[in-house]
Amino acid sequence: RCIRPLYLEVGGTIGDLMSKGIEECKKDGAFLPIIRSDQENSMFNDIALNMAKGITYYPYLILGMVCNSSTRRLEWMDGPKITYTKKNFNASFDCVSTNWLVDSELHYNEWYLAPSTFSTSWTVLCVAEPSEPISTSTSKSTTTAKLTTITTVKDSTNSRLKLRNTENNLLNYVI
């Protein structure tokens, strides 16, 4: 996966920034964060917290859960039914009759429902799958993904690959 920060702690309503985020991410064939396990939840929390370091104390990450008007239930942007949520989070409600959207409050490691008009500072990430496999060798290599040309570097401290955008040196992650 390639992860690109779209907005880092930008003020506004969750509804407006989610709509803009969905539109902008789709241009790259990307989605807002879709989380299917504790491991993915921890990864997105770590990435968003590190990117927002020093900007604000209470970062909020907008998640890629949207309302399916046919089923009247929340689902992930890429279509599948929600099979993973954080403890004490209930996604089983009629989303058509409410205006609630889902965010992750990163310092508390919890998901919350927020009215679409709720205003604070939000982080929006675009997540895309590479168009071709990325090398996992320990040597440096260059490949092309949907978002940009990247150089892969083995990260020995936490067994992840880090991607550096060769144009502006922004840090992205791969799992």
TrEMBL record:
<keyword id="KW-1015">Disulfide bond</keyword>
<dbReference type="InterPro" id="IPR016187">
    <property type="entry name" value="CTDL_fold"/>
</dbReference>
<dbReference type="InterPro" id="IPR050976">
    <property type="entry name" value="Snaclec"/>
</dbReference>
<protein>
    <recommendedName>
        <fullName>C-type lectin</fullName>
    </recommendedName>
</protein>
<dbReference type="InterPro" id="IPR016186">
    <property type="entry name" value="C-type_lectin-like/link_sf"/>
</dbReference>
